[in-house]
Input
Amino acid sequence: AQKITQTQPGMFVQEKEAVTLDCTYDTSDQSYGLFWYKQPSSGEMIFLIYQGSYDEQNATEGRYSLNFQKARKSANLVISASQLGDSAMYFCAMREGPSDMRFGAGTRLTVKP
Amino acid sequence: GAGVSQSPRYKVAKRGQDVALRCDPISGHVSLFWYQQALGQGPEFLTYFQNEAQLDKSGLPSDRFFAERPEGSVSTLKIQRTQQEDSAVYLCASSLEGARNQPQHFGDGTRLSIL
Output
């Protein structure tokens, strides 16, 4: 069964505007971690932000914030003030145990000038 | 550099050949992971090491795939008798420990093409 669902294969955003990338997940564990990674065309996976299942506040890292709705099992990434360099693939991932990191299919974000 | 280092960056092999992919994790990172990423898809988990112990190899697609980390640092992913469906990017990642809140830091990957 798919554990991480990213329903937006592609998204467009105007430079300097905010964009939300959707992610829903499926787990029966109470303790888990949620991650977002960015993968530019060069291929490297860049860690962006982390949210723990017990964290009461939404995580923020600079222009990135995570809209965590535990009851709905969603962990959307919000990028504020988009920049051209934000154009990339974005992957949502969940970690339930030491090894079990599952990734979604990704969303390709294109920032328009 | 201080990041995860993978080599080679690109590998082309003929079907049936054996290949070996190397990963040098961040110094001091206990946990090491291998992933396979097909074109246009997210990474798929292959195997996990904690120090030299391979604790999870449930993602290895067949017995042609073998991974080792004999001294708890550098790891090698070996694919025997390669087939065309093995063509993918192989990503290595490391983390400080195996806790759920630890982000995994990835290398640039090895792009494997099987002709």
About this structure: The mean pLDDT of chain B is 93. Chain B touches chain A at residues 31, 33, 40-45, 48, 50, 55-56, 89, 91, 93, 98-101, 103-109, 111 (CB under 8 Å). The two ends of chain B are 33 Å apart (CA to CA). The longest strand of chain B covers residues 88-95.
